[in-house]
Amino acid sequence: MEMIAFNSKFPQIAEKETRSITVVDNSYGLEVGQYFFIELFCTDRTCDCRRAMVKVIGPGGKFFATLSYGWESLEFYTQWMFGDSSISDTIIGTQLYSLAPQTKDSNQFLDFFKTMLQDIEYANRIKRHYELFKKAKKTKPNYFTNPKLNKKNDLRITSTNL
Questions:
Q1: Fewer Cβ atoms within 10 Å of its own Cβ: the N or the C terminal residue of the chain?
Q2: DSSP code per residue over 102-131
Q3: 41: nearest Cα among 12, 70, 62
Q4: Which distant-in-sequence residues (6+ apart) come within 8 Å of 135 by Cβ?
Q5: If you average pLDDT over every residue of the chain, what do you get?
Q6: What are the helix and strand counts (H, E) for the chain?
Q7: How far is CA 28 from CA 22, 24, 34, 161, 162, in A?
Q8: Does residue 72 contact residue 92 with C-beta atoms inside 8 Å?
C-alpha cells in the first residue's frame, strides 16, 4: 500500500490546516523548534481503510516518528480485514506504526498526537482530509513538500501546557 502526503495533492489546504507544535524550551528533552504532523493517506482508490499515517518532521526536516491513526470501530476493521481481529487490533486507534522506523522520541510524539486528537475539530479535520484525498483524481504524487507555518494550527509546547 503506497501512502503519500495530503499536502502533495492539496497544498493550499495543507498550508492552512497542517497541525504543528513548537517546542520553546528543552523541558521534554526535544530540540527547540517546530514539528509538523504530516498526514499521509493510501493511494489505492478502491481501499476504504479509514486511517491515516502521520509523519512527524522536526527542525531541519529531520524525521521523528510515524504514527498510525484508525478512527473507526474494532468491528469495522475486523470486517475490513476479512474477519481477522488480530490484524484489526493493529489498525484501530492511535499508535506507533510498527512497520516504519521510529526514534527515541517517537513515543513522546505519540503522546502529543493523542492529546491533539482530543480536539474533536482536529480529529474531524483528518477524516475530512481522508475523504478529499480519496475523491481526488489520480495525479503523479509529489511525495513530500515542506509545509509552511500557519500560526492558527501551531501549538506551543512548554512544560506547563501539556
A1: N
A2: --TTHHHHHHHHHHHHTSHHHHHHHHHHHH
A3: 70
A4: none
A5: 83
A6: 6, 7
A7: 12, 10, 14, 12, 11
A8: yes
